Amino acid sequence: MLPSPAYRPEPRVFDLGPDFADAVQAADFPQAVLRFRNDRAAAEVGLEGLDDAEWIAAFGRFAPLPGQPGPLAMRYHGHQFRQYNPDLGDGRGFLAAQMRDASGRLLDLGTKGSGTTPWSRGGDGRLTLKGGMREVLAAAMLEAQGVPTSRAFSLIETGEALERGDEPSPTRSAVLVRLSHSHIRFGTFQRAAYLGRVDQIEALIEHVRTLYHPTVAAGDAPGLLRAVVEASAKLTARWIAAGFVHGVLNTDNLNVTGESFDYGPWRFLPFYDPGFTAAYFDQTGLYAFARQPEAVFWNLTQLAGCLKLVAEVEPLTDALNSFGPAYIRELRAAFLMRLGVLSLGEAADQRLVDATLALLREGGEALRWEPVFFDWFGGFASSARALSGPRAKLYQGEAFDAFRFALLEHEPDRIERLEHPMFAAREPEEMRIDEVETIWAAIDADDDWAPFYAKLARLEAARTAWGFTA
Q1: Cβ-based burial of 172 (10 A; exposed 0-12, middle 13-18, buried ≥19)
Q2: Catalytically annotated residue among 90, 252, 262, 282
Q3: 15 has a pLDDT exceeding 90
Q4: What's the whole-number mean pLDDT along residues 127-132?
Q5: Residue 244: enclosing H or E segment and its boundaries?
Q6: Residue 5 and residue 96: Cα distance in Å, rounded?
Q7: Inter-residue contact 299 to 249 (CB < 8 Å)
Q8: 377: closest CA among 138, 148, 145?
Q9: 252 given a catalytic annotation
Q10: What is the pLDDT of residues 302-314, one digit of tens each?
Q11: DSSP calls for 145-204
C-alpha cells in the first residue's frame, strides 16, 4: 500500500505518553464491504491513491498506515446529562492515524465501531450500519452549511448481526472512520483533574496550544481557555443558523478545536421550535435546540474548573465570560453567511437576525426552517425568485415586511453564486428525518444504496453552490 507523495504522517498525540491512551487492536470482522469513501477528504491527506482493496485493508482491517504506530483508545471522563462519569473513554473507537494536510494543519483519523477496548464497559464495541449511514449524512450536510465538523471518511459494512434496544434487531454492522482536527475532548482534561494530576493538565495545555491554538503563549491556561471559548461560540452559532440539534452535548462530546463530531441522535429542525429535542431520552429538554448555547457554556465551565489546578480563578472567569459576546457576534455572522449578504454593522446585522427568527417563528410548520435561507439567499437579488416560488403566499404580513426590509438593506455577498443550478430548483436541500428513514429503508429492505449516494451528490452540489467555509 503506497500513499501518494502528499501523505504526511504525524503521530503527535502519541507525544502525550501512556497516561492518555491505551494501545488496542481492531476487531477481526467477518466481512468488509466498502459503502462510502470520501475521496475529496482523502486527497487532503495524500490517501486518494488507494484502490478499494487497499482502502479496505486500511479502514476495514486496519492495517497500519506508513509511519503510524498503531491504534490508541483515548482515555477521558465526562459529564453525561450533567452527571459525572469517571468510567468513560473510547469504548468502540480509537485514534488510527495523524497526518498533516498541504497547509500544515494536523488531522486525525478516528474510528467508530472498530471493536472493544478497555473502556467498552460491557458493550460490544460495534456500530450499526444505520448509525454509520446517519453520521455520513449529518457530516455532509453540516459541512455544506459551513459548520465546523468532523467529516465521514470511510464507511465499511462488517457483516455482523447486532442487537440494539433502539433499533429493530438484529441489525447490520459497520465501522466508520472520521477525519477531524483533534480527539482532545473537554473530558480529557476532566480525567486529569479528577485524578489530581497537575502534570497531565500542564501537558495537555502545552499539547493543545502548540498544535491547535499556537497564538496562545506557553503555559497560558486562561489564554487557551479563551481560544476554546471562541471556537465553541462559533460552532454553537453555526449549529443554530443551520437549524441543527446535536442531541447529546456532554462534555466528552465537545473538543478543544470547536468542531462537532460523534453524531448520534441528531436532528435538523423541521420548522422553528426552540424546544425541539433530538434524543428520545432527553426527557427534560436539556439539549433542546435553543438550549444548546447554554449547554456549551455549562460544559466550558467544567473545562475552566479543570484549569483551576494551574491558573488563577479571575482570568479564567474572564475568559469564560467571553462566551456570551462571542456567541452573539458569531450568530450574526452565521445568519449573514447563510443568507448570502454582507455585514452592514452590528445594529443592522442584529435587526436581520431578529427579523429572520421572527419570520421563522410566525411561518412555523408551513414555512419550515431551511426554505427561508434558500429562498432569500443573496438578499434583494432573490426577491423575484422567492416571491414567485412555492412559499410566495407565506411572504406577507408584518413579520415578513420587517424581515424583507432588514435583508434588503444588506448587499449581496458573491452574487455570482446564484448562478449555480441549485438555485433554479423550487425546493432546498434539507435533511429531515423522514427522508433519512426513507434512505435507510431502501438499504435495509433491498440493499439499495442509490438514494444514499444520490443524497450525497446533492449535498456536494449544495456545498459547491453555497461556497461556505467553516
Answers
A1: buried
A2: 252
A3: no
A4: 98
A5: strand 244-245
A6: 20
A7: yes
A8: 145
A9: yes
A10: 999 999 999 999 9
A11: TT--B-EEEEEEEEEEEE--SSS-SSEEEEEEEEEES---BHHHHHHHHHTT-HHHHHHH
